[in-house]
Amino acid sequence: MRWTWLWLATALAVASPALAQDAPHQPQARQIFERLISFRSAAGHGQVPAMADYIAETLRAGGVPAEDIVVLPHEETAGLIVRLPGRDPAARPILFSGHMDVVDARPEDWERDPFRLVEENGYFFGRGVLDNKAGVTAMVSTILRMRADGFRPRRTLVFGFVGDEETAFGTTRLIAAHDWVRNAEYAINTDAGGGALGPDGQPMIYLVQGAEKTYTTFRLTATNPGGHSSRPRADNAIYDLARALLRIEQHRFPVMANALTRAYLGAFGRIMPGETGSALRAFAADPQDEAAANVLFADPEFVGTTRTTCIATRLDAGHAENALPQRATALVNCRIFPDVPVESVRETLVEVISNPAIRVETTGTPQMSPVSEPREDVMAAIARSIHGRHGGVPISPYLESGGTDGLIYRTAGIPTWASSGIFIRNEEMFAHGLNERIPVASFYQAVDHVHDLASDLGGR
Ligand SMILES: [Zn+2]
């Protein structure tokens, strides 16, 4: 999960979340959460299959028939799929998705044991409390509640538990291709989206992820015959590479926009003061407004929603302080606007560098994905759930900088919206980092949010 939103100086006055009353599922959800946090489900530790077994066992004990649970082993990890069959066999299923794996955490670096759920001062601490074990807990809790209540959805609900979202998406691909999922009408991802709280703890905006940029890293290499540094030649790999990077720094990729990004920038424009606010409103109204685009270009929070960006992130050159460099390499990390081919960005970089001696290679296998334009019934169900707890908060779709399971589902033809019930302050975003935490109230709201959506959308 990669969330990006800004810290706003002004807060909107909206209703406080209603206190949960009569919520017997909460202690159960907390217990499941505690158990899930205890699995060190990071790559290399091989604990995801045990975590999947625990979830499967919990669901069987809660009355889910064994034939509606499938574990998908994959290398050292595993995926898990669970279905609640619908009443209407003609209706296409809905997929809910969350990921069981986490980015590793070193206990010696943390103030508290990252693999033990700690509740302190209104927060839950632990690796994965935010990314994405609250979402996984919400899915398990929802299935158990529906079973206990005897709820039978009209549409089949399928719950996909991914085992390697943070590294490879291997289990995501298995889930997307599975018979129960392939025909899904759309997916709700619990791993992104969510609400931003202002400095005073008031909700300011709620975001639904509808698209992701293509994460791509290019390697630039300059080579040279080298030699002794006491006998310098006119050409030099480090100077050649440096010039190439300065040209990339000067280059601006063209402004781009779609209905989703315009809605997002417009929503922020309505709640942001000052020059940025007016630029956002102007850009949302007319993406060709150059003055507005220039203001947003200078703003790290918004530039990524207005165009492809490429930035140098690593350098490596030379082999001795008294030798002419034979090789200089740099990594340039790009976040490519949806629907722009990776190869066209590589070609643009080659053109911008305009030195055929510099090699520009694509690293890894970038995953492009289509945009999921907001769908009315899904956005309405999200609004009903969110406004039930945070009345009046503005809701907007957004373009993620890239890297969730939504990439895989969208590419497989399943439109996907990420909608987590978690509201946090920007400065509380410690996913992947140290001392990851989540407000206790947010956890229970996230649990209810999945139940709300599954009951609402499943009944349609
Ligand atoms: Zn995540």
Question: How is this structure best summarized?
Answer:
The chain is of the alpha/beta class and 460 residues long. The chain is 34% helix and 22% strand. It has a six-stranded mixed sheet with strand order 1-2-6-3-7-17, with helices on both faces.
E-strand count: 19
Mean pLDDT: 93
Give the overall silhouette.
Answer: globular
- Biggest pleated sheet: 6 strands, mixed
Residue ranges: pLDDT <50 for 5 or more in a row? 1-20
> What ions, cofactors and ligands are bound?
zinc ion
Compute the separation of the termini in Å: 29 Å
Instruction: List the total number of helices.
Output: 14
Strand content: 15-25%
Rounded to the nearest angstrom, the radius of gyration is 24 Å
Query: Roughly how much helix do the residues carry, as a percent range?
Result: 25-40%
Helical/strand content category: alpha/beta
Strand order across the largest sheet:
1-2-6-3-7-17
Summarize the structure in words.
Strand 4 (118-120) and strand 5 form a beta hairpin. Residues 1-20 have low confidence and may be disordered. The strands form five sheets. The chain has a six-stranded mixed sheet, with helices on both faces. A four-stranded mixed sheet has the order 16-9-8-18. It has helices at 25-37, 48-61, 133-149, 170-177, 179-182, 237-250, 259-271, 274-285, 290-297, 303-306, 342-353, 376-389, 406-411, 440-458, and strands at 69-74, 77-84, 94-99, 118-120, 123-125, 157-162, 186-189, 194-197, 203-212, 214-223, 227-228, 309-317, 323-324, 327-336, 359-362, 395-400, 416-418, 423-425, 437-439. With 460 residues, the chain is of the alpha/beta class. It has 14 helices and 19 strands. It starts with 24 loop residues before the first helix and ends with a helix. Zinc ion binds next to loops.
